[in-house]
């Protein structure tokens, strides 16, 4: 079995204690079971394998990307397995565990300074420009996650797994939006199979640009880039739910202590939104969302650091 064959086929489990009475059943997909502990392994495998197949990525080329960390670790894993050097543009805004994991897997890091450790539109744009500069060097392939359509297809298997594991019995899917690739990939599959399925996307309340609000700083890593992502497809989306960073953090802690589910901040945001949807849909319905990555990536952040 190839290492990259270990990506996917993650477990789907029901939440027990954080779901109030009278709500729909809420199921969560344990994406930390992927090799780097993140859903992003799926897109990394897709963008590298598809670029190899059509010749955009050649043996000996260097891969370049900008990332808050999980995509970088996933790319580092795939590049290590495939034999490509990797240069990552990232920032001190993201957890030290993520930076360390990327470096441990062989990535060369370029750090762009943030404004007080916050994710802002300016930071994202600065990271993109730094990656663009690196991509001008010879024998370089820039995966450019915000524009790369290959990443959407990387999440089709996730939608197929959810459909298979629920037996097609689900009423809503809830997911945070960063690049929009995961929500779009899953929604494409699920809505094709069940057109009436409700697709709910989540964004930081402090930067609720998809809801028509202004961009702002927040601390839900990996989501909320401060402007509408190029891969955003509104025709697939039925509802947008803003979730505050503090609510996402608190839910992440509750999931760990009450459910034994050790996840990151975006997973907390996913569950906050999923519970709002579950409350409206009622006990006869079923809602699915993602545990996007492992809490091990956040041990030295204010999500889990001892107070």
Summarize the structure.
With 307 residues, the chain is of the alpha/beta class.
CATH top level label of the largest domain: Alpha Beta
Strand content: 15-25%
Give the helix proportion (percent range): 25-40%
SS class: alpha/beta
Write the layout of secondary structure elements.
Layout: E1 12-14, E2 25-30, H1 40-54, E3 62-66, H2 70-82, E4 86-91, H3 96-104, E5 108-112, H4 121-135, E6 140-142, H5 150-154, H6 156-166, E7 172-176, H7 181-193, E8 198-204, E9 239-243, H8 245-259, H9 265-281, E10 286-291
Parallel strand pairs: 2-10, 3-4, 3-6, 4-5, 7-8, 7-10, 8-9
Antiparallel strand pairs: 1-2
Overall description:
The protein is α/β, with parallel strands linked by helices and 307 residues long. It has two domains: 3-33 and 152-298, Rossmann fold; 40-142, Rossmann fold (3-Layer(aba) Sandwich), CATH 3.40.50.1100. It has helices at residues 40-54, 70-82, 96-104, 121-135, 150-154, 156-166, 181-193, 245-259, 265-281, and strands at residues 12-14, 25-30, 62-66, 86-91, 108-112, 140-142, 172-176, 198-204, 239-243, 286-291. The strands form two sheets. Strands 1-2-10-7-8-9 form a six-stranded mixed beta sheet. Strands 5-4-3-6 form a four-stranded parallel beta sheet, sandwiched between helices. Helix 3 links the parallel strand 4 and strand 5. The radius of gyration is 18 Å and the shape is globular.
């Amino acid at each position: 079995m190839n290492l990259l064959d270990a990506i996917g086929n993650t477990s789907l489990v029901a939440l027990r204690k954080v779901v109030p009475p009278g709500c729909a059943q809420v199921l969560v997909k344990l994406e930390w079971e992927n090799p780097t502990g993140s859903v992003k392994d799926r897109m990394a495998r897709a963008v590298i394998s598809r670029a190899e197949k059509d010749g955009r990525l050649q043996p000996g080329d260097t891969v370049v990307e900008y990332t808050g960390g999980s995509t970088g670790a996933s790319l580092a894993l795939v590049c290590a397995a495939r034999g490509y050097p990797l240069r990552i543009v990232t920032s001190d805004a993201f957890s030290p565990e993520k930076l360390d994991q990327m470096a441990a897997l062989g990535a060369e890091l370029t750090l762009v300074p943030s404004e007080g450790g916050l994710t802002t539109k300016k930071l994202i744009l600065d990271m993109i420009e730094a990656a663009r500069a690196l991509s001008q060097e010879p024998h370089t392939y820039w995966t450019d996650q915000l524009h790369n359509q290959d990443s959407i297809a990387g999440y089709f298997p996730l939608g197929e797994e959810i459909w298979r594991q629920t037996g097609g019995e689900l009423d809503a899917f809830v997911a945070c939006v960063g690049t929009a690739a995961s929500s779009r990939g899953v929604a494409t599959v699920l809505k094709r199979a069940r057109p009436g399925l409700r697709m709910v996307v989540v964004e930081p309340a402090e930067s609720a640009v998809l809801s028509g609000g202004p961009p702002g700083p927040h601390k839900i890593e990996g989501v909320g880039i401060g402007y509408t992502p190029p891969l955003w497809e509104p025709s697939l989306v039925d509802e947008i739910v803003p979730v505050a960073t503090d609510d996402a953090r608190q839910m992440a802690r509750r999931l760990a202590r009450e459910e034994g589910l050790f996840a990151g901040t975006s997973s907390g945001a996913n569950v906050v939104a999923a519970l709002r949807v579950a409350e409206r849909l009622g006990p006869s319905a079923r809602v699915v969302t993602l545990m996007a990555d492992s809490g091990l990536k956040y041990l030295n952040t204010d999500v889990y650091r001892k107070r």
